[in-house]
């Protein structure tokens, strides 16, 4: 039996739609490198989109943070060529943790995933006092 891992690529293409304190929105297109063996957007690809946006939301609040805990629900398949909107919003802005809710929708407005990330604050970005 040959076992070959399928390479997954994320953020080959994206467009920042909104970047404000505690709220980030980007668009990206599902490409061949985003697909699983069944021809749908790979769960790891969708998770990584949410994780990256959660980190950017934390950065928008003036801190560096890493994922402490996460939960994701896959509600609908993403397909080759779909334009996905990934939106992250801080719902808890604590001193040591941030909680970021993320939603991915397709161009029809269908919800593809809903996720929640607890981000652990590791400090301020370099150069910030």
UniProtKB/TrEMBL annotation:
Domain Thioesterase: 38-111
A UniProt-annotated Pfam family: 4HBT
Top-level taxon: Bacteria
Keyword Membrane among UniProt keywords: no
GO molecular function terms attached to this record: fatty acyl-CoA hydrolase activity
Residues annotated as transmembrane: none
Record has Hydrolase as a keyword: yes
InterPro entries: ACOT13, HotDog_dom_sf, PAAI_dom, Thioestr_dom
Keywords, sorted A to Z: Hydrolase
Entry similarity comment: Belongs to the thioesterase PaaI family.
The protein's name in its UniProt record: PaaI family thioesterase
Organism: Streptococcus hillyeri
